[in-house]
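In keeping with the milestone schedule agreed at the kick-off meeting, the structural modelling team has produced records for the first pair of proteins. Each record is given below as a sequence line and a structure-token line. The laboratory manager (R.T.) confirmed that both were archived under the project's standard naming scheme.
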Amino acid sequence: MQYQKELMEAVARSKRFGISEQDISLCSERHYSDDRLMELISVIDEAYGGISMERLLGKCAQVHFDFLADIRRIFHPGALFTLGYVCLEENEYFKFGEPDIKSWLRKGLNPDKMNLHAWITLPSLEIIDLTFSATFAYVNKIEEFGIAITKHVSELEGMSYHPMLVGEESVFKLGVVKSIRFTI
């Protein structure tokens, strides 16, 4: 499976660049359910005071970082913060490569002009992406958008995710989040 291969390469790349030491123990058991998604949406809705396109648009790293602990609690403790790019049919969104990573590590990355995408990978290779659909809807002037993409990578029709880096510590090493949300 292509995603699994790319994920393992992202884990190795993250270690090689000194970005993250995180790993993932893959499993075949699925963790997604509608009830779990509704619980997560409730948490996000409460934290953000409502879910809107404006709150999600262009904030993929921040949103997934902010809710990673909740995703781990609701879905699986081994959920892995993932950075990479997305392909939808013939189009590539937020594509970057190793030269970009090297440059970001040297010069820093402007969090307001990032050319990367963040999502969560569950050990079952299920994707939880809370922001791509809002960004896609905005760019394509679509008024309604799905709140999340939550599918196993083998079930994504016409769409593929390409992990390049892993680990929530990557947001600090690359400078992609502006603040940290603490939950007590």
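The second protein of the pair:
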Amino acid sequence: MTYASNLDNILPAVSSAPNYCFEKIDIRDKDTLSSIYTRHAPTDVIHFAAESHVDNSISNPSIFFETNVIGTNNLLLFHREFALNRFHYISTDEVYGDLPLERQDLKFIEDTPLSPHSPYSVSKASGDMLTQAFHRTY
């Protein structure tokens, strides 16, 4: 969890669920991930973890690639190793680039080509593409 996360945003919806467990870890740490997957035997993953904010990615791009690309890759590898049912990756509209402010009629749609313009959006687009590649390959 970073400055951009707030556990209180999900607690009311999930805290009483019998299968809910919160683990604060670094998704770049494969040993810890392995321990969690072994201990909890998850069936599905919803991947929200990410470094965020364009300005932060400009001043420190490396952590964005470590978390948003390497971390996503780690989760996908464990998803495959543990034969989980579903991997749901949360992305961002930033992967599509910018829309001109004077063109309110323009919208992004699912077929809009990727056009990231910052280290943040490139790292998230990389996570998108990794997830798609794992889905198609495995």
